[in-house]
Each structure stands twice: as structure tokens, then as C-alpha cells.
Design a protein that fits this description.
Mean pLDDT: 93
Shape: globular
Protein name: SMI1/KNR4 family protein
Helix content: 25-40%
Number of helices: 8
Structural class: alpha+beta
Low-confidence stretches: none
Strand order of the largest sheet: 7-8-9-10-6-11
Largest sheet: 6 strands, antiparallel
Radius of gyration: 18 Å
Number of strands: 11
Oligomer: single chain
């Protein structure tokens, strides 16, 4: 049932292939937003036009991602958005990278090296403060992360909160929430905020950026009650109180 959907349980066993990634995205969208329906994807002719403009073919996994949820900006466009096909571009650094996602102020980019475009589901790299580094091993994994992070930071802040956790509380997180079986990956802001780890419980989603003392914990409830319950479980100094709106410039990155 959708009401019982838990990210930890849904990702138990990992994401071995693209089919599993897209199945998770569909289930997650149905539970945390609105179900993916026909028409939620980018039209084939729009993708073909982008390929013609770029003079290259998109990897199969990236085409599938756009075809599945290319117009669902609630799942892909809240903070560091998936680029529209017409916005795709080639970054000249790192031997040339096809960029498909951008940090909201252009401070970082995610993409696939041109030399890897022949693979169906190639690795993704991110342009971080430490230079271009490997983000995740497959485009499909990077798209799952995109949907998780963009949903976490969505809903205009109403269901989101954040705090800096001392080392003592970081050590306690796995006993309070289930660690999600998703590969660790770097935060674009640098090594101090890496690796990124996910935790969950029914109706609750948590992302920890780094394992150092006072690393940032970002949380999202599926409902306001879920968020209140989540924050009450962790005695941190939260960015906002229960009834305070969160302004965009209050996000800790």
C-alpha cells in the first residue's frame, strides 16, 4: 500500500539495474507526490531535437529517465534541477562532459563523459569544489538520487527542515532510523560534507551530508505530522520551528 511505503524497505537489496531504478521512481512518486502517468515524460521529438543540436546520442538510461519523468518538475526541479533537453550542453573540462543537471546557481554540474556515451547506463560525474569526481556508477542511480533529493527539498519548505548534528547524534542515527541501502556518494560542496548517506522510516526521509562533527542533516516528512514527529526524535537545533516558514536563502548550501 502507498501509505506503508518506506524508502528503506523499497531499496532493500539495492538497485541492480535500470528496470529496478525506474520501478522505484514510480513507487516513490506515487507515495510522496503524485503517480507518474502518461504524459509525464519528455516527448521523443524533443529528445531527438536535442541530440541533433548536440550532435550526439543520449545514453539509453538518460533517454529513459526523460521519457519517464521529464516534465515532473516537482520530482526533478526544486533545488538542483534536471535540465530540459534544450538546455543540455557539453562542458569542456574533464575531457568533455554532457551535462544534464545543474546546481541552482550554476555552482556545480552533473554529467556523463563523452567517451562513456556509448554505454547504456554510464557513470555520472559531478563538478565539485574538489574538481570533477565520480558521483555514482550509473545514470539510473543518479536519477534515483535526483528524485530523492529534489523531493526532500521540495514543497516550498513546508515539509522540510535541517539541522547541524554533533558527532554524538550522528552515531545514534542508525539506531533511530533505518539506513537506506543506497551507495554513498560525494556532496558537490566538498569532502567535508561527504559522503552523503540516507535514512528513512515510514513517512520520513533523511539525508546526512558528511560524517564529521556538525554535519548537516536534511529531513522531509510526507505530512506535517510526520515532520513534527521526525524533528522531535532528534534533539538538534533545527533551522525552523514547527510553524515557521522556511525561506529559500535559509537553506544551508
Amino acid at each position: 500500500m502507498v501509505d506503508e511505503f518506506d524508502v528503506d524497505q523499497a531499496l532493500r537489496g539495492g538497485i541492480p539495474d535500470r528496470a529496478r531504478a525506474w520501478a522505484f521512481v514510480r513507487d516513490f512518486a506515487a507515495a510522496w507526490a503524485e503517480p507518474l502517468v502518461d504524459g509525464a515524460g519528455t516527448r521523443a521529438e524533443e529528445l531527438e531535437r536535442a541530440e541533433e543540436t548536440l550532435g550526439l546520442a543520449l545514453p539509453t538510461a538518460l533517454r529513459e529517465a526523460y521519457s519517464l519523468l521529464g516534465t515532473r518538475h516537482d520530482l526533478t526541479g526544486n533545488q538542483d534541477p534536471l535540465l530540459r533537453p534544450s538546455e543540455l550542453f557539453v562542458h569542456d573540462e574533464f575531457g568533455a562532459v554532457l551535462v544534464f543537471r545543474s546546481e541552482n546557481q550554476g555552482c556545480a554540474f552533473w554529467g556523463v563523459r563523452l567517451r562513456d556515451l556509448g554505454q547504456d547506463d554510464p557513470p555520472v560525474f559531478v563538478q565539485s569544489r574538489d574538481g570533477w569526481v565520480r558521483f555514482l556508477e550509473r545514470v539510473s542511480l543518479a536519477c534515483v538520487e535526483l528524485v530523492l533529493s529534489e523531493t526532500l527539498l521540495g514543497s516550498e519548505g513546508r515539509l522540510y527542515n535541517a539541522c547541524e548534528l554533533p558527532a554524538s547524534l550522528i552515531r545514534e542515527l542508525p539506531s533511530r532510523f533505518a539506513p537506506v541501502e543506497f551507495p554513498e556518494y560525494p556532496m558537490w560542496t566538498g569532502k567535508e560534507e561527504s559522503p552523503v548517506c540516507w535514512f528513512s522510516a515510514p513517512g520520513k526521509l533523511l539525508r546526512l551530508d558528511g560524517l564529521n562533527d556538525h554535519s548537516w542533516l536534511h529531513v522531509r516528512g510526507r505530512t506535517p505530522a510526520d515532520l513534527v514527529s521526525l524533528c522531535a526524535t532528534i534533539p538538534g537545533h533545527w533551522v525552523r520551528g514547527p510553524s515557521e516558514p522556511l525561506e529559500a536563502d535559509e537553506l544551508p548550501f
